[in-house]
Design goal:
Length: 511
C-alpha cells in the first residue's frame, strides 16, 4: 500500500505516548448547570484528548473535527495559522530543531498525526469520524487516514457546497465546495443511515456491493458463496468478470435466505445476481449520496448568520453551519440517540448546537465533548454560544480546564492526585476499558476479564502490602493485581493468594 512520508514523521509517530497525562479540573463559574455529561474542555487538544482517555476510550460514537485548512493565509489567526506561537512551540518540543525547516504541509501533518491517533482510540468499534477539509490538505489527509484507520474503513469524501456564487476563487475556477472525509473505526460494525427519499420501482435491491469498495480485495470476508436451488453456488461477480463482494455479512445473508427474501436472476452476460425483495409500497434504503444535499445543508455564509443572530456581530471567521454537522450526526447516530459526540477543534461551538438541535428534533439524549485551545475563544464564544442556544434547545455542560499532570518531572506520582484519579488511570492502562467509579470500594478499583485490581493509596501509612492489607482483599479465588508503595510479603505468600504486586510509581504504565 502506498504510504505518506514527510519531514518530522519519525519524531511524531509515537508522540502521543510522550504527552503528559493531565487531570481535568472543573470550573464551576463557567459551567452551565450543577452537573452534566456534556463537556467543554479548554486547552491544547492533544493534552485534552490524552486526559479524556481513561474516561472515554472506546466510548465515542461520532467525531466531527474542523482542523486548520492550512491555506497559507496567515491573517486568519485562529484556524489557519500553523505558524502560530503555540503550534511553533509545540513543534519545537515534539520534532526538535529540524522543525524550523518544515514546510507548512510538514507542520500540518506533524500537528494532525498524533491527534488523529488519539481520536481513533476514543472511537467505539462502530464509531465514525468526519473531517472537514479542502484541497490544500485533502490528498495528504486521505493517505494519513488510510495509514491510521486502514483503507478498508474509508467511507466517503463527501462533497459540501460551502459557498454560493460564481466569483473566481483561483485563477481558473470558482471553488464552491469543500470535503468531509469520513472513516469508520470498523466498517464491518458500521450502522450508517440510508436515504429513504426515493422509491424502488422494481421492488428489489441488489445484494452485490457496487461503487466505492465493491471488490473482493476491499472486504475479503464479504466474498462467500450463496446457494440457489436453480443455479447452485452463487458468488458476487462484477460485470467485468472480476470478484466483487456482497453488501452484507454471511450471517445477515443467512437470515434473508431463511425468510425467503432472496431471489436470483441470470444476467445477459451469464452472471447470476442475487436480490433482496422489497415489499410493495415500502421505501427503499437507498445509499446516501456522496454530494450533500444543498437544500438541507447550508453554506458557510449561513453559519455566519447563525452566529450574528446569537451575538449580534461576526465573532468568528468562516464558521460551519449547524445544518452541516447535524446532517452528519444524523447519519452516524440515527440508531444511538444516547451517543457521545466529540469535536476537538471546537471553534465557535457549532457541534454542540447541532447536537442539541438533533436531540430536540428526535427526542434524543446525545452528549457532546468540545475541546478548544484558545482561552478567549473557549470562554467568550464556544461556551457562550452553547449557553445561549440552550435557552431554546435545552442542555447544560461542565466547563473544565487541564489541571495537574499525573507524574512529576522526576517520575514520581504527583502528591495532589486523588485516589479516584489514579485509580481511573491505572485501571485504564491495565484493561484499556473505563473504570466504573460506583464500584470502587475501599482499595478495590475493579474487576476485568477474571482479574481483580487494587490500589493502596488512601493513607501514607497504609500504602503497604502486608498481612493486614492482604486480609482486606476479597476472599475470591480470582487473581489479584495490587498497586502499592511497598510489599512486605514473601513471594510464596503472594503466590498462595494469587497476588501480583506492582510498585508505585515504577509499575504504573504510561499511556
Amino acid at each position: 500500500m502506498p504510504s505518506l512520508n514527510w519531514i518530522g514523521k519519525d519524531k511524531i509517530e509515537n508522540h502521543d505516548k510522550e504527552v503528559a497525562f493531565r487531570l481535568l479540573k472543573k470550573n464551576e463559574k463557567l459551567s452551565l448547570g450543577k452537573s452534566s455529561e456534556n463537556l467543554i474542555v479548554e486547552g491544547d487538544n492533544l493534552e485534552a484528548l490524552k486526559a479524556l482517555m481513561p474516561h472515554y476510550a472506546g466510548q465515542v460514537k461520532c467525531i466531527y473535527i474542523d482542523p486548520p485548512y492550512n491555506t497559507g493565509n496567515e491573517g486568519w489567526v485562529y484556524n489557519d495559522k500553523v505558524n502560530s506561537p503555540k503550534i511553533k512551540e509545540w513543534l519545537g518540543k515534539a520534532v526538535g530543531p529540524e522543525g524550523e525547516d518544515l514546510t507548512r504541509h510538514d507542520k500540518w501533518l506533524c500537528m494532525m498525526y498524533p491527534r488523529l491517533k488519539l481520536l481513533r482510540d476514543l472511537l467505539k468499534k462502530d464509531g465514525v469520524i468526519f473531517i472537514s477539509i479542502d484541497d490544500n490538505e485533502h490528498c495528504y489527509l486521505k493517505l494519513m487516514m488510510d495509514e491510521l484507520f486502514g483503507p478498508e474503513n474509508f467511507i466517503e469524501s463527501f462533497i459540501w457546497k460551502s459557498r454560493q456564487g460564481k466569483g473566481a476563487t483561483s485563477q481558473t475556477t470558482a471553488k464552491l465546495h469543500e470535503y468531509v472525509v469520513t472513516y469508520a473505526k470498523d466498517t464491518s460494525k458500521l450502522a450508517f443511515k440510508t436515504d429513504k427519499r426515493f422509491s424502488n420501482k422494481d421492488n428489489k435491491e441488489r445484494l452485490r456491493q457496487w461503487g466505492q469498495g465493491d471488490s473482493r480485495k476491499d472486504r475479503p470476508t464479504m466474498y462467500y458463496p450463496v446457494f440457489s436451488k436453480e443455479f447452485g453456488e452463487v458468488f458476487p461477480k462484477k460485470p467485468d468478470g472480476t470478484d466483487g463482494r456482497w453488501r452484507i455479512s454471511r450471517m445477515s445473508m443467512d437470515k434473508l435466505l431463511e425468510s425467503g427474501s432472496v431471489f436470483f436472476e441470470k444476467q445477459k452476460d451469464g452472471r447470476i445476481e442475487a436480490y433482496k425483495t422489497i415489499p410493495s409500497g415500502s421505501e427503499t434504503n437507498t445509499a446516501y449520496s456522496s454530494i450533500l444535499d444543498s437544500e438541507i445543508v447550508k453554506t458557510t455564509a449561513h453559519g455566519s448568520v447563525e452566529l450574528k443572530n446569537l451575538f449580534g456581530d461576526s465573532v468568528f471567521a468562516y464558521p460551519k453551519p449547524s445544518s452541516l454537522i447535524q446532517e452528519l450526526l444524523s447519519l452516524a447516530t440515527f440508531n444511538d440517540k444516547k451517543a457521545t459526540i466529540l469535536d476537538s477543534f471546537a471553534g465557535s461551538g457549532t457541534t454542540a448546537q447541532a447536537v442539541l438541535q438533533l436531540n430536540k428534533e428526535d427526542k434524543g439524549n446525545r452528549k457532546f465533548i468540545l475541546v478548544e485551545i484558545e482561552e478567549k475563544i473557549a470562554r467568550t464564544i464556544t461556551s457562550e454560544r452553547v449557553r445561549r442556544v440552550a435557552k431554546d434547545l435545552g442542555g447544560d455542560f461542565e466547563y473544565v480546564t487541564l489541571g495537574d499532570t499525573l507524574f512529576e518531572s522526576s517520575g514520581v506520582i504527583n502528591q495532589k492526585i486523588s485516589f479516584k484519579d489514579l485509580a481511573s488511570y491505572i485501571y485504564f492502562t491495565e484493561t484499556h476499558t473505563n473504570i466504573n467509579l460506583k464500584k470502587i470500594r475501599e482499595n478495590f478499583i475493579g474487576e476485568y476479564s477474571g482479574q481483580e485490581y487494587y490500589l493502596l493509596l488512601k493513607d501514607k501509612d497504609k500504602n503497604i502490602l502486608n498481612r493486614a492489607s492482604l486480609s482486606k482483599l476479597s476472599k475470591s479465588k480470582l487473581p489479584k493485581i495490587v498497586y502499592a508503595d511497598k510489599c512486605l510479603l514473601d513471594q510464596s505468600v503472594l503466590d498462595k493468594y494469587r497476588v501480583i504486586f506492582k510498585q508505585i510509581p515504577y509499575s504504573v504504565k504510561t499511556y
